[in-house]
Amino acid sequence: MTDTPKYVSLDGVIVPWAEGNVHITSSAFKYGCAVFEGLRGYWNAGDQQLYVFRADDHARRLVNAQRFQRFDTLFDATSQTTAMVDLLRALDLREDVQILVHAYVSGGGLPASTGPNGLAIAATPWTTPARLEAGVSTQVSSWRRTPETAAPMRIKTTGNYNNGRIAAVQALADGYDTALLLNERGKVSEGPSMCFAMIRDGRAIFPSVTNDILESITRATLIDLLREDLDVTVEERDVDRSEIFGAEEAFFCGTAWEVTPITSIDRLAIGDGQPGPLTRRLQRHYEAVCRGTVAARDNWRLPIYG
Ligand code: PMP
Q: Which is the closest atom of ligand 1 to the Cα of 38?
């Protein structure tokens, strides 16, 4: 990462970075009345192009999240994407980026207030984290994933994130890289900001979407790539904690986590304790699809320039 980017986008208007503020009395600040998306842009040096991955799917998920929160003003997919493209072009970033899009209650009031609403977008340069190559050690958290009966875990609302945060903080304090949360039924759910998968007897197994997980766009992408491109059988079902220890490989996935190998859980090695071969193949293929270095699934990549 170089310097702080020059601009952010507020309500579709490009403003200097320092002016990207939300008031301390806003419901967004006080009660977490905000929904958001994290997107990635991949710089393709050969094409001299920045590709944003599955922008339409992220925008649609954010529309659903705003509707769920009964916000007065809904920023539709077109207005979100137009504002994002305008910002990226103004910043003229020619490197990998992370983009955060927040829709929120900018007014004050009680927790039930639904407006007025704001749309904030920030894009910052992204450096590939070391965890992608090295993999991560993981702790099964003593915290349970918030159940669907208590909060809408398939909605990306900022208020949901304290659950994963405390699990991650505990894992770091205990000497692990990150956490894996079980749900109230004791089944494997997901990580603090990423989904879980394992390879067992050559099959890819993902906890199903009814396990209090976010309906992850990366997870859906990888299921397609595994089935269609890598000819791997995929199962979506309940996963028991003890089942993981019989897996040959395991990984986390998400927009920011991409495909991150899990090398151990609770200090017990997964496979031989190294990132597994199928995880590596999937990792490479996913990156090539996102970056556009393979001519496949062009409709998933939104070109920003030209
Ligand atoms: N679970 C949680 C709780 C997340 O915050 C994220 C990141 N958005 C994911 C899973 C992965 O979702 P996606 O692939 O859509 O980024």
A: 8
